[in-house]
Amino acid sequence: GFHSLRQLAEVYGIQDSIIDLNQDKLKLDTVTLRKLNINKVTFKDLLKHPYADFETTRLLINFREQHGFFKDESDFSRIYSLNQTAMHRLIPYLDFIVTDSLDHIESQIKK
Q: What percent of the chain has pLDDT over 70?
């Protein structure tokens, strides 16, 4: 789903002028926005997200495995080779729920 009307500009064939002209007619339902728990998501599932390319996914999952759970989005700044612009696009789709450590271990084994 979309979290911002500006994302419509990323859709092929939709021009900014069309969005601007129809902005008062467009409405987003952010309540139904599906978020991924960055502390539990698998490599495969994160890679399916349109804003998570292979390199971003690899960096996030490796960092989590080496350093533990992400507390909030500020933890991403500790990953120096991570494209911060790309991360700003992905962050609205992430939750930072810290689950039981056994769940984390179990998810790593299932990979």
A: 62
Quick check: 90 and 49 in contact, CB under 8 A? yes
| Strands (DSSP E) found in 2-77 | 36-37
Give the pLDDT confidence score for residue 2 in this predicted structure.
58
Angle (nearest 5°) at CA 102 between 64 and 98: 50
Most confident of 3-12, 33-42, 102-111: 33-42
- Label residue 75 exposed, middle or buried (CB < 10 Å: 0-12, 13-18, 19+): middle
Rg value, the chain, Cα: 16
Q: Residue for token digits 């890679």?
A: 47
CB-based burial label for 105 (10 Å; 0-12, 13-18, 19+): exposed
Q: E-strand spans in the chain? A: 36-37, 94-95
